[in-house]
Amino acid sequence: MASTQQPDSPAEAVKGIHNGPPGPLLRIIKDQRVAFLLVGGINTAFSTALFVAIAWIYPDLPSPIVLSIAFVISLVAVFFVYRKLVFRVKGHFWLDLGRFTLVNLTMFFVNMVLLFAAHEVLGYPKIPAQITITCVTVVINYFGHKYFSFRRRPEAASPTTATEESAP
Fold first, then answer.
1. pTM higher than 0.70 for the full model?
2. Residue 99, class by beta-carbon neighbours within 10 Å (0-12 exposed, 13-18 middle, 19+ buried)?
3. Are the C-beta atoms of 14 and 87 separated by less than 8 Å?
4. pLDDT in tens, 26-49
5. Contact 96, 89 (CB under 8 A)
6. Longest CA–CA separation in the chain, Å
């Protein structure tokens, strides 16, 4: 069972959840939650900007197509950013990517249903509707990635185990 106490050092912040040293953002920010939310916020802005740009450039594209294009591009980009800058995990690349994708796909489908209901059914403009939906889903994404996408078993935190597991 995970302790809710704050660790004494940044290196301890990743034990039991992540097997790498603190990422570059944690050296500056010192709080993994803030670094995670900063990256997530930047990605959310990036994804939303992609959605807006695609919707403006191709106004006749259905909302699900616009959302899908923005989703895939931002998913790939943010996976590597979280992995390298925030969590610094090694090994389990495909497992991490699968979990990360699962969390994001869950939020993607929730987003799609809500956007369909808001825009196609209720007639709200798609861009403001998407921005509102994003504010709701970002909170759920945080917990999914924190406790599922990049989670490591406590025994995986040892240097010997991390080295042995670094091959995908």
1. no
2. middle
3. yes
4. 788 888 778 878 998 898 899 999
5. yes
6. 57
